[in-house]
Write a structure and sequence with these properties.
Layout lengths: L16 H4 L6 H15 L4 E7 L6 E9 L5 H14 L3 E2 L4 H9 L3 E3 L13 H7 L4 E8 L2 E8 L8 H17 L3
Antiparallel strand pairs: 1-2, 1-6, 2-3, 4-5, 5-6
């Protein structure tokens, strides 16, 4: 696997210079930029963000999501459908991959989300329908806000330490670019 490209400040179209310098920065555009940077510099096809509800009792999917640009139109449509179906889910702490990552604050890899039991990966039927396979979730802090980033690809893949490192490095590097 090739190393991910270094992310530069100019590579973040969702964050204009004026947006990065305001104290009223909204989290979703930041998360979208982060998902874009990771998907475009690694092999992840789709990324989504889960954020705590205002009372911090539940996790809900954020409006921030991204699909890699060099995918076929059919594959991009599948990821869009996967995202749309996922919007119906709200997770308790420890529930599903995002909920487990939220509670443990540790990254987690699934070899094949579609093959997992529903009790372990709640969206397994959606994953089967739209071809979501290898999955990786990790916690991230954006200023005072926290999110769980989850990345997917359409192939089954054993845990890949190089891809994990590339993903975590891209997230950490981008977080450094964001003066929050």
């Amino acid at each position: 696997m090739t190393k991910p490209e270094r992310i530069r400040e100019g590579d973040l179209p969702y964050l204009s210079a004026s947006t990065r310098n305001t104290s009223s920065l909204k989290v979703d555009p930041v998360l979208t930029a982060l998902l874009q940077a990771v998907c475009e510099t690694t092999v992840w096809e789709y990324g989504e963000a889960w954020t705590p509800t205002p009372d911090r009792e539940l996790l809900e999917i954020s409006s921030a999501w991204y699909t890699r640009t060099n995918l076929s139109s059919d594959r991009r449509i599948d990821w869009e459908h996967f995202h749309n179906c996922s919007q119906k889910f709200v997770l308790h702490p420890g529930e599903g991959l995002p909920g487990r990552v939220w509670v443990t604050q540790e990254a987690e890899w699934l070899v094949d989300a579609a093959a997992e039991l529903k009790s372990y990966f709640l969206r397994n039927q959606i994953a089967k329908a739209f071809g979501a396979r290898a999955t990786f979730g990790l916690p991230v802090s954006i200023g005072a806000s926290q999110a769980i980033l989850v990345f997917f690809m359409s192939e089954v893949r054993k845990e890949d330490p190089h891809l994990i490192e590339a993903t975590q490095t891209a997230v950490a590097h981008l977080s450094e670019l964001l003066p929050l």
